[in-house]
Amino acid sequence: MESSSNMNAGYDPAKLQEFQVLVVGFVCVTWAVLSVLFAWPFKHKVVDRMPKIPRQTGEVRERKLGLFACFSNQDACQHAAFCPAPAAARVMEQSGVTGYWTGFAVTCVTMYGGMCCQSMECFALPWRMWTMWRYTELMNYEADFISTFGVSCCCWPCEVGRQTMEVDLESGRSATCVCQVREQRLLNVQPQQQMRDIGAVA
């Protein structure tokens, strides 16, 4: 009983909470800095070489790729998992949702800010929902509020991966995780198997 009392006497909840805040803050800042360092060459070596996709019209189209399709594409999966902000910004630029740097900045602030401050999630969720809704509108895909809300809350990186693959299929070009652009010869759900390297921009 005495040893237990001594352990409780040395336990300081305030210091533990302060330590947790510092660790989370360090992780968020580090990840944000790495995203910025990746976003610059990604913009000039990949995004600037990608054609803009014109707004799709006509009958509403059914999406050919499922939510977890990016698991079949190594490059799209890696971008969505480790560099979601630049990957999402690239989709926004190509599809016409917003400009690359605008999309990147707002996504970074809402995503990493939400990790450090829970109140930032109040801004992150509407931003993700709006960009998803606008993307499906411009691409003329079927969309509904419930699925948009659910994916924005629970599976946003998977949606970024799916959108990446969709714009690849529409534009005929894809990006590798080493900032190279590849041209797709066939339209299918596994573009990395049907590409030829066309080199990277210096």
Q: How would you write the strand order of the largest sheet? A: 1-2-3
Radius of gyration over alpha carbons? 20 Å
Count all strands and give the number.
Answer: 3
Q: What level of helicity do the residues show?
A: 55-70%
How many angstroms separate the termini?
A: 68 Å
Main beta sheet strand tally, sense and closure:
3 strands, antiparallel
Identify low-pLDDT runs.
186-202
Mind explaining what this structure looks like?
- The chain has helices at 2-9, 13-45, 74-82, 84-95, 100-116, 121-139, 145-154, 156-171; strands at 173-175, 181-184, 195-197.
- The protein contains 8 helices and 3 strands, in the order H-H-H-H-H-H-H-H-E-E-E.
- The model is unreliable at 186-202 (pLDDT under 50).
- By secondary structure, the protein is mainly alpha-helical.
- The longest helix has 33 residues, at 13-45.
- A 3-stranded antiparallel beta sheet has the order 1-2-3.
- The protein starts with a helix and ends in a 5-residue tail after the last strand.
- The protein is globular and about 65 Å long.
Would you summarize the structure shown here?
With 202 residues, this protein is mainly alpha-helical.
Present the secondary structure layout.
Blueprint: H1 2-9, H2 13-45, H3 74-82, H4 84-95, H5 100-116, H6 121-139, H7 145-154, H8 156-171, E1 173-175, E2 181-184, E3 195-197
Antiparallel strand pairs: 1-2, 2-3
Helix pairs in contact: 2-5, 3-4, 3-8, 4-5, 4-8, 5-6, 6-7
